[in-house]
Amino acid sequence: MSGPNGDPNIPSDDGIIEDEDEFNEEEYAAINTMLDQINSCLDDLEERNDSLNGKLHELLESNRQARQEFRGQLTTATPPGEEKLFPDQDSPATEGEKGGE
């Protein structure tokens, strides 16, 4: 006799799991309660993640603004004739910086 997939010498009843364990209402209620608790924990983690993400974006923006202010203070505090630490990208280059064109 062939098996369920046409395999020879395998009885068709072999490998079938008889699920004799029947869950009662209390077990389903306990499983449902556990799933609700897991869902609640996941919702809490998602809220914390969103909050941390928002705070991170605020911190990045604050750091960006502080860096721009610091660069502005450095460029205005540089006496004439001295090199700037952060040269303007829009300023024309000198002959030495152009590569002797």
UniProtKB/TrEMBL annotation:
Entry-linked InterPro entries = BBLN_eukaryota (IPR005374)
Q: Where is this region: Disordered?
A: 1-21, 63-101
**Quick one: signal sequence residues?**
none
Any one Pfam family here would be UPF0184
**What is this protein's name?**
Bublin coiled coil protein
- Which species is listed as the source? Oncorhynchus mykiss
Lineage at the top is: Eukaryota, Metazoa, Chordata, Craniata, Vertebrata
Q: By which gene is this protein encoded? A: bbln
